[in-house]
Amino acid sequence: MLSRIVVIVSAAVAMTLAGHGLIPALGGFTPVLESLLPWMGWSVPVLLAAATLARSRAAAAAALVPGMVWAAMFGSTLLRTPPGGPSDLTVGTINVGVRNNASGEAVRQVAKDLDLLAAQELTRGGPAAKQLNKMFRYRYPVSTVGLWSRYPISKSRPLDVGMGWPRALRAVISTPKGKVTVYVMHLASARPGHTTSRDASLAQARRLIDADSSERILLLGDLNTATTDRGMRGLTPPLTDAQTEAGDGFGFTWPSEFPITRPDHILYKGMTATKAGVAPATGSDHRAAVASLRL
User: Fold this and answer.
1) Are 54 and 261 spatial neighbours (Cβ–Cβ below 8 Å)?
2) Does the pLDDT at position 222 exceed 90?
3) Residue 48's Cα: distance from chain center in Å?
4) What's the CA gap between 254 and 286, in Å, rounded?
5) Euclidean distance between the first and final Cα of the chain, in Å?
6) Are residues 97 and 206 both part of a single domain?
7) How high is the pLDDT of residue 169?
8) 214 neighbors 181 (Cβ within 8 angstroms)
9) 163 shares its domain with 237
10) Does residue 216 belong to any structural domain of this protein?
11) Which one of 18, 28, 86, 235 is least enclosed by Cβ atoms within 10 Å?
C-alpha cells in the first residue's frame, strides 16, 4: 500500500513540475502554486524515505523521477556562478513595509553602496524617505513609491498600472555611460483565488514597456509575481531578470524571516547584469533585491 502511494504521489509531483503551465489558472490558485515550485524538490527525500520504509525498488525509482524533473528545471539555478566583471550601475528595490518604524535604517543599510534605489510602501515624510533624502541628491517620490538616484533624474511622471491611482513611476536617469529609463512599480497584490487585479496590473506594465522605445530600460519593484509564476511571462521577455542571469541561488525575498518566494524584481533590457542578490531590510517583511549592471 505504501509503495503504491509513493508511486502515485511521485507521478503527481513530476507532472505538476513538468506540466504546471498546462494547468488552468483555477481562479488564481495555480499561479500561487507556481510561486512555490522550487520547494517541491523537498518532496523527493520524503518520497525516498517512504520508499525505503516500503522496501520497494519500484517506489524508489518512481521517487527519483520528480527529482530528475526538478533538477532539469532548477539545477542550473543552484550551480550558476555570477558572471562578475566591471559594472556601471548598482541598483536595488525594497518594499520598506508601511508599518515599519525602522524603515529609515532598512534603506540606509540597503542603499549605502547603490547608485539607484526604488522603494515601495513609503509613507510621505516617513523615516525611509527622510533617510534616502540624506543619501541621494536626486529623488522622485510618487504616492507610496519612489526613486532615489546619484545621477540626475529627468522626464519623470507618475503612472497608474490599473489600480485607479498612481502606484508606479517612469523617469530617465542620466548616468556617465548614457541614459537609462527607469520604471518603479508596486503592482496589485495576489492571493490564492484572487489574482485578477494583479494580472490586470501586469498587463498594464507590459503595455507600458512595449510602448517605450528607450534603448535601456530598468524595471524595479514589488511586482507581487514570483519568478516561476506564469504571470512573469508577460514581462520576461521582453525584459531580462537580473537574478536569473547573474544571481546566486533563487534570491527569495518574502517573507523576510524565512523567504519562500521572490515578488521583488530587477528587470532590464539594453544592459548586462554582472551580479545580483538579496540584502536584509530591517523591520520589513520583504528583503531587498540588488543588482549590478554594465551599460
Assistant:
1) no
2) yes
3) 32
4) 5
5) 59
6) yes
7) 98
8) yes
9) yes
10) yes
11) 86
Residue 159 backbone dihedrals phi, psi, to 5 degrees: -135, 145
Is residue 63 within 8 Å of residue 48, measured between CB atoms? Answer: yes
pLDDT (average), residues 15-32: 87
List the domain range (segments joined by +) for residue 285: 89-294
pLDDT band at 216 (very low <50, low <70, confident <90, very high): very high
Looking only at the bridges linking them, the beta strands covering 272-279 and 288-294 are antiparallel
CATH number (domain holding residue 127): 3.60.10.10
Same domain, 51 and 148: no
Quick one: three-class SS letters along the chain? CHHHHHHHHHHHHHHHHHHHHHCCCHHHHHHHHHHCHHHHHHHHHHHHHHHHHHCCHHHHHHHHHHHHHHHHHHHHHHHCCCCCCCCCEEEEEEECCCCCCCHHHHHHHHHCCCCEEEEECCCCCCHHHHHHHHHCCEEEEECCEEEEECCCEEEEEEECCCCCCCCEEEEEEEECCEEEEEEEEECCCCECCECHHHHHHHHHHHHHHHCCCCCCEEEEEECCCCCCCHHHHHCCCCCEEHHHHHECCCCCCECCCCCCECCEEEEEECCEEEEEEEECCCCCCCCEEEEEEEC
The closest alpha carbon to 40, from 60, 61, 65, belongs to 65
